[in-house]
């Protein structure tokens, strides 16, 4: 697994008419052999976001979840592709209702699995395992420079979010496990 080559392939795929589908194909090939990706990015030891590429039209990072870490419902306001290279990531999908949001479905992503989320998708994420989960997350825009929303996990009230808010959640997670 050559990360530089992988990123280049994603950047090229992102110029195609159906950019999300083209990038998903590249991602699918990349996590098809999850161990090779794990070796390339390294065994996770922290909740972390390791950026591989960032531009106005594409963000690629490896995200690692601590054992049994949860992330509250949030949107991205851009398409998102996820590919898991170690562990497991469970997604609850949510939809907007006149009163807020409600759960509308779930997907379990195991090593080697990919998922494509639409521009208006809302999801919450759980690592159900007692070990780290790692995935490659690709977004059709600048993930860190887009104002969006998260939903309070107790009240489901909508609150502002962005890349920095998400980074702070990851930092708090590490503090909790004493890292
Ligand atoms: Fe997300």
**N-to-C series of helices and strands:** HHHEEEEEEEEEEEH
Main β-sheet: number of strands, strand sense, barrel status?
5 strands, antiparallel
CATH superfamily: Jelly Rolls
Number of strands: 11
**Mean pLDDT over the full residue set:** 96
Hetero compounds: fe (ii) ion
Radius of gyration based on Cα positions: 15 Å
Count of all domains: 1
What is the number of helices? 4
* Unreliable sequence segments: none
According to CATH, the fold-level topology is Jelly Rolls
Architecture in CATH?
Sandwich
Strand order in space, largest sheet: 1-2-9-4-7
**Helix vs. strand class:** alpha+beta
N- and C-termini, Cα separation:
29 Å
Strand content: 35-45%
Question: What order do the helices and strands come in, and which of them pair?
Answer:
Layout: H1 3-13, H2 19-32, H3 34-41, E1 48-54, E2 59-65, E3 70-75, E4 80-86, E5 88-97, E6 100-110, E7 114-117, E8 122-126, E9 133-139, E10 148-151, E11 158-161, H4 163-176
Antiparallel strand pairs: 1-2, 2-9, 3-8, 4-7, 4-9, 5-6, 5-8, 10-11
Helix pairs in contact: 1-2
Bound molecules: fe (ii) ion.
Notable features of this structure?
single chain; 179 residues; alpha+beta; Jelly Rolls; five-stranded antiparallel sheet; four-stranded antiparallel sheet; 4 helices; 11 strands; binds fe (ii) ion
Overall description:
- With 179 residues, this protein is of the alpha+beta class.
- It has a single domain, classed as Jelly Rolls (Sandwich).
- The chain is 26% helix and 40% strand.
- It has helices spanning 3-13, 19-32, 34-41, 163-176, and strands at residues 48-54, 59-65, 70-75, 80-86, 88-97, 100-110, 114-117, 122-126, 133-139, 148-151, 158-161.
- It has a five-stranded antiparallel β-sheet with strand order 1-2-9-4-7, with helices on both faces. It has a four-stranded antiparallel β-sheet with strand order 3-8-5-6, with no helix packed on it. A two-stranded antiparallel ribbon has the order 10-11.
- A hairpin with a 4-residue loop joins strand 1 and strand 2.
- The longest helix has 14 residues, at 19-32.
- The model has no long low-confidence stretch (mean pLDDT 96).
- The site of fe (ii) ion has 3 residues, from loops.
């Amino acid at each position: 697994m050559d990360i530089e080559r992988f990123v280049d392939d994603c950047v090229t795929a992102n110029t195609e008419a159906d950019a999300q589908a083209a990038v998903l194909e590249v991602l699918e090939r990349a996590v098809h052999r999850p161990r090779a990706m794990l070796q390339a990015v390294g065994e996770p030891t922290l909740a972390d976001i390791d950026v591989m590429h960032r531009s106005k039209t594409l963000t690629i990072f490896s995200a690692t979840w601590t054992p049994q870490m949860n992330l509250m419902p949030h949107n991205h306001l851009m398409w998102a592709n996820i590919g898991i290279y170690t562990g497991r990531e469970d997604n609850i999908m949510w939809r907007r209702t006149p009163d807020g949001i409600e759960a509308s479905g779930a997907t379990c992503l195991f090593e080697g699995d990919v998922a494509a989320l639409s521009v208006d998708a809302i999801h919450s994420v759980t690592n159900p395992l007692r070990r780290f989960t790692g995935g490659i997350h690709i977004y059709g825009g600048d993930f860190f420079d887009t104002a969006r929303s998260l939903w309070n996990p107790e009240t489901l009230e909508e609150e502002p979010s962005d890349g920095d808010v998400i980074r702070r959640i990851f930092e708090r997670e590490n503090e909790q496990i004493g890292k």
